[in-house]
Amino acid sequence: MPYFLRHLSTVGPTAEPVFDPAWGRFLDTLPAMAWLADTKGRLLYANEAWREATGLRGDVRDLSRFGDLVHPEDRERLGGAGRAHAGGSTAYEFRLRRADGQYRWVLERIHAWRDAKGAQIGFVGGAVDIHEQKRHEQRLSLIALRQTSLACFGRFILEQTEIETVSAEAVRLFCEHLRLPAGLLLRGDPEGIEAPRIFCARGFAADVSPALVSLPATGSTRHYPEDGDDFPLPAAWLEAGGWRQGLAVPVDPLAPSRGWFVGLSTELPDLPPSLNYARELAAIFAVAEARVRAERDLRAGSERALQIQKMEAVGLLAGGVAHDFNNLLTAIRCFAELLRDDLPGETQRSRVDDILHASSRASHLVRQLLAFSRHEVVQSEPVDLQSLVDNLRGFIRSLLSEHVRIRFELGEAPAWCHADPKQIEQVLFNLCLNARDVMVVDGTLTVGVGPAPASPDGGRRVRLTVGDTGPGIPPEVQARLFQPFFTTKPRGRGTGLGLAASRAIAREFGGDLTFETEAGKGSVFHLDLPEVASPYAFEPEPEPTRASRAPGRSLLLVEDDDLVRAVTTLLAESFGHKVTAFGDSGEALAWAEQGGLATIDLLMTDIVMPNLSGHALSKRLRTLRPDLPVLYMSGYVDDEETRAAIAQPGVLFLAKPFSHHELASRLEAALAPLAAGPEDDSDRPADGETQGFLP
Predict the structure, then answer these.
(1) What tens digit of pLDDT does each residue of 246-279 get?
(2) How confident is the model at residue 548 (pLDDT cuts 50, 70, 90)?
(3) Which helix (H) or strand (E) holds 553?
(4) Which of 172-186, 334-348, 552-566 has the highest mean pLDDT?
(5) Does CATH number 3.20.20.120 belong to domain 160-273?
(6) How far apart are alpha carbons 578 and 669 in whole angstroms?
(7) Quick one: pLDDT at residue 621?
(8) 3-129 and 160-273 share one CATH topology?
(9) Which range among 6-20, 336-350, 658-672 shows the weakest confidence by mean pLDDT?
(10) What is the pLDDT averaged over residues 294-303?
(11) DSSP for 479-506, written as a single string
(12) Do 445 and 436 contact (CB within 8 A), yes or no?
């Protein structure tokens, strides 16, 4: 107990403690609050600091009124501490309402007031203002709590592989630690392809879909309503929702188009000063997002690599199967044509026509296998899109489901372009299959041919269109529609290469593949190709008859397949030619080197053969006779050098399976330089010259 209290601990005539006013004047000089009370709770004295803080007059004696100044949340705790006071020293903290109406934290200590004999005669108390210290402690505690939450969030994201889960946790922390009732994560596209959108939301009663999300161009923090014109969410939408305060923090200040955290409140008081936490949270989220996306891209890349390996394996298998299958189809087709020409009755001929139709459909399947394995030989030539589509009517119908109707819109005038007809057919099939797959319940497939709008440089173009009446293409899909490996089909039903390959084919021939779509009404794809300036130069020649062939030529035929060699020999001899046939290229080379080469006018050779390929055989023979014409035959080429050589202008190539008309036409073209008669020495090319044939 203080000395002055021990010295003046006396009891007056009324059995009350006596306090010398001189000591009161001394206590009035102290900045801390001080007071004296008897054991009955009556206030005997309060210094000036106490009176100023509480606003109570100095003559107030009832301390019960002092309890009204204590914060409601602290009254019960303060009362319990007072009741537990047993005459010793007690200290506790509470919030005291000052005269200006504000609550401030104070630390109060109470001592027992005793007389000279040690008997308690009252209480003495003192209090100091610790409000700033308390606020500092709370601020440090909040900082520690937030740092702990950031550390926990950092550990949390290391265990997550889904960006949706990470985003939801980040929005939760953003709202809770900034004391905001609602929050959003707005996502953008740094490449500017996709429109900004709401990726994650918290604290909203219903789905949130503002009409327009506009991400700020710079990465500084935005406040609403102060930055209303540059706030990510439209002011009209915020006002309609009753939101009166808003805070927006960029995920990455250096790349604000990546996304923004937005917190909203319906209260007008300023937002809590915790921007540093918001920025640190956004920075951790940006790192987490980059990691998750990198891992996702890595997994996707691994899956694509595995898919490519599978495609290569299947491609090799498909190429091998196609090679043997084309040989069989060649024999079936040619023997069937010979049989049809020899049959007298129309009924019997129609049955053979069915065989030819089946072989034609099978050849289309082989072409798809070869296109898939990239072993198909590309041969550009004039193509009439009208005739191409018209000839494929039945095949296109066979691709469709029963619930899909088909409508052809073909013009009367030819639509000529310069392309590989097989690849154009592949594009047509891809588009038809995609259209069929999007029309799940019912629909109409439209295939049309006609003129296209002029190219950017003013050139004329022709157009092949494929339209459907499906649901249309969503905006988020449109931007990625032609990306390789992108597909909306279920796993196992699409590789994501169809449209990408189709556009590549279109651009290879100087055109393009575009589309138009409308939600609920369907989509239309346009294949635009440059129109041939003089289509009359490419009018198809009438099918030659066997009697029109120029007889008397000697052919060297090298073909390892027995059926193909037999039917080719039979057809060539029916055209009036003499054929020397070999099933082994090594035997043919030995025969030629022993003098047989001088007796032949044309080398007809398959390309893919064991030991010595057809291309290698022709090179060996033409070192002995440079002017030797060569006609290649194959349905499959597995060598890049050979494929490049065949694609050169002037090289004659006959694709398997072929018909007897196609064989006759190619033979006439190969033998055309000899049609005028024997060459003299002046007409014979010099060494190294090839007359446009393969060197």
Answers:
(1) 889 888 888 888 888 898 888 765 545 577 888 8
(2) very low
(3) none
(4) 552-566
(5) no
(6) 17
(7) 92
(8) yes
(9) 6-20
(10) 80
(11) TTTTSTT---SPTTS--S-HHHHHHHHH
(12) yes
pLDDT band at 689 (very low <50, low <70, confident <90, very high): very low
Q: What is the pLDDT of residue 546?
A: 43
If you search the block for the tokens 């706030």, which residue do you land on?
231
Beta-sheet pairing, 416-419 with 381-384 = antiparallel
Helix (H, G, I), strand (E, B) or coil at 178: coil
Helix, strand, or coil here: 342? helix
* ∠ Cα 395 397 402 (to 5°): 145
One-letter-per-residue 3-state SS of 182-243: EEEEEECCCCCCCCCEEEEEECCCCCCCCCCCCCCCCCCCEEECCCHHHCCCCHHHHHHCCC
Tokens coding 17: 């403690």
Question: Helix, strand, or coil here: 634?
Answer: strand
Sheet holding 602-606, edge to edge: 578-582, 554-558, 602-606, 630-634, 652-655
For residue 683, give every residue at least 6 positions away whose Cβ sits within 8 Å of its Cβ, in sequence order, or none: none
What number of helices (H) and strands (E) belong to the chain?
A: 19, 24
Most confident of 18-32, 57-71, 420-434, 565-579: 565-579
Neighbours of 534 (CB within 10 A): 8
Do 629 and 602 contact (CB within 8 A), yes or no?
A: yes
Tokens of 493: 């039903």
Domains of the chain, by residue range, sit at 3-129, 160-273, 377-538, 546-674
Helix (H, G, I), strand (E, B) or coil at 6: helix
Q: What is the second-level CATH architecture of the domain 3-129?
A: 2-Layer Sandwich (3.30)
- The structure's pTM equals 0.46
Instruction: Enter the tokens of residue 633.
Output: 């035959």
Tell me which of 415-429, 530-544, 673-687 is least confident: 673-687
Q: Residues 77, 70: contact at Cβ < 8 Å?
A: no
338 CB-contact burial (10 Å; exposed 0-12 / middle 13-18 / buried 19+): middle
Separation between Cα atoms, residue 451 and residue 560, nearest integer Å: 46
- How far apart CA 472 and CA 439 sit, in angstroms, is 10
Distance CA 556, CA 633 (A): 13
CA atoms within 13 A on the CB side of 387: 10
Q: Average pLDDT for residues 582-598, to the nearest whole number? A: 92
Structural contact between residues 263 and 182, judged by C-beta atoms closer than 8 angstroms? yes
Per CATH, domain 546-674 is 3.40.50.2300: yes
CATH of 377-538, one of 3.30.565.10, 1.10.569.10, 3.30.70.270, 3.40.50.40: 3.30.565.10
Q: Is 380 exposed, middle or buried (0-12, 13-18, 19+ CB in 10 A)?
A: middle
For residue 131, pLDDT over 70 is answered with yes
Omega before 490 within 30 of 0, i.e. cis: no
Among candidate residues 465, 390, 394, 474, the one with its CA nearest the CA of residue 427 = 465
Query: Which residue type is seen at 308?
Result: I
- CA 173, 174, 180, 182 torsion-angle sign: negative
Taking the C-alpha atoms of residue 637 and residue 370, their distance in angstroms, rounded to an integer, is: 9
Q: What is the pLDDT of residue 684?
A: 40
Q: Are residues 631 and 654 in contact, defined by beta-carbon separation less than 8 angstroms?
A: yes
What percentage of the chain reaches a pLDDT higher than 90? 12
| Mean per-residue pLDDT over the chain, rounded | 78
User: Residue 514: helix, strand or coil by DSSP?
Assistant: strand
Alpha carbon distance 8, 16 (integer Å): 12
CA distance 150 to 142: 12
pLDDT given for residue 403 in this prediction: 82
Q: Which residues sit opposite 384 in a β-bridge?
A: 416
pLDDT for position 568: 93
Mapping DSSP to helix (H, G, I), strand (E, B) and coil, where does residue 353 land?
helix
User: Residue 60: how many CB atoms within 10 A of its CB?
Assistant: 14
